[in-house]
């Protein structure tokens, strides 16, 4: 698919995920075949107030078309947030969050709450698109709840106001992350707009990626939770889409090398303390399904220095397979 001047190859995008898709994780996913990545969501209001922590989330990774995701509900502040994000790092696009269901966000009129106010959603897309010279995209859900599924109308409104692609997570806000994602609604969006549509929700394997594309007619799939500790999924999806044999995940030893590389990138970006706290969940994800790994998972839950992380990884490489 095409996004502005970027040609995005057949493959899968890595979904924006707060607390997960930091520079380290996005970098290794891109290195293993993710064709598009997005930062964690960043508050436009916090950028407006110069919040350092929010700016620190705005890192651009190499290896894939990379966007910054912002949230908020004030068109002017969103436009300013987009400009500030681009001034901070040369992102390839700006993504507007219209899908976050969390009370802290949606209860504030941000994220998925924008789906309840299409004129405001349109105004925000127009304001951001006019303020920046990179493509602006939107990520939304099916609707607020099952009585108000309106993503087709939202998508048309976003297109009319200048959005250059839309990602649809096939769940309502009320579903949060449970139930089964509806890929049929994504097809309705695909038929209603001429901008690229990215399908998201429950793409957990190369087979699911193929089924999702077939069912939804979408231009690209986006993978969220299934990528935790598994950047190889992106290469597998790419192979499946080009009709090649799906490569196996490499042996544990090699997988742990990648986990360590991810940690080192995160540490260089945000410092040892935070990188170690976050490595606790990432390393545990890399061990999902690994037999006899409980003792190591226990050690992982306590790592607090880079040396701890390196020692645990070496131990796993020595003792497990
Ligand atoms: C921990 C976590 C954090 C998330 N943070 C964001 C976010 O910052 N912005 C966003 O648009 N979606 C966010 N999402 C939603 C995902 O991008 C994605 O839409 C959702 O997980 C469905 O895809 P999946 O079924 O492949 O996981 C988050 C999801 C999870 C699990």
Indicate the topology.
Blueprint: E1 2-3, E2 6-7, E3 12-14, H1 23-31, E4 36-43, H2 44-48, H3 52-56, E5 65-71, H4 75-88, E6 93-98, H5 103-106, H6 118-131, E7 136-143, H7 151-160, E8 165-172, H8 184-192, E9 197-200, H9 206-216, E10 220-223, H10 232-241, H11 252-270, H12 272-286, H13 294-300, H14 306-319
Parallel strand pairs: 3-10, 4-5, 5-6, 6-7, 7-8, 8-9, 9-10
Antiparallel strand pairs: 1-2
Helix pairs in contact: 1-11, 4-6, 6-7, 7-8, 9-10, 11-12, 11-14
The structure holds flavin mononucleotide.
Question: How would you concisely characterize the structure shown here?
Answer:
This protein is of the alpha/beta class. The protein is built from 14 helices and ten strands. Strands 3-10-9-8-7-6-5-4 form an eight-stranded parallel beta sheet. Strands 1-2 form a two-stranded antiparallel sheet.
Strand order of the largest sheet: 3-10-9-8-7-6-5-4
How would you describe the oligomerization state of the chains in this entry?
single chain
CATH superfamily of the largest domain: Aldolase class I
Q: Give the topology string: H per helix, E per strand.
A: EEEHEHHEHEHHEHEHEHEHHHHH
Characterize the main sheet.
Answer: 8 strands, parallel
| Proportion of residues in helical segments | 40-55%
What is the CATH domain class of the largest domain? Alpha Beta
Mean pLDDT, nearest integer? 98
Ligand catalogue: flavin mononucleotide
The domain tally reads 2
| End-to-end C-alpha gap | 39 Å
What fold name goes in the CATH topology slot of the largest domain?
Answer: TIM Barrel
Which architecture name of the largest domain does CATH use?
Alpha-Beta Barrel
Q: Number of DSSP strands? A: 10
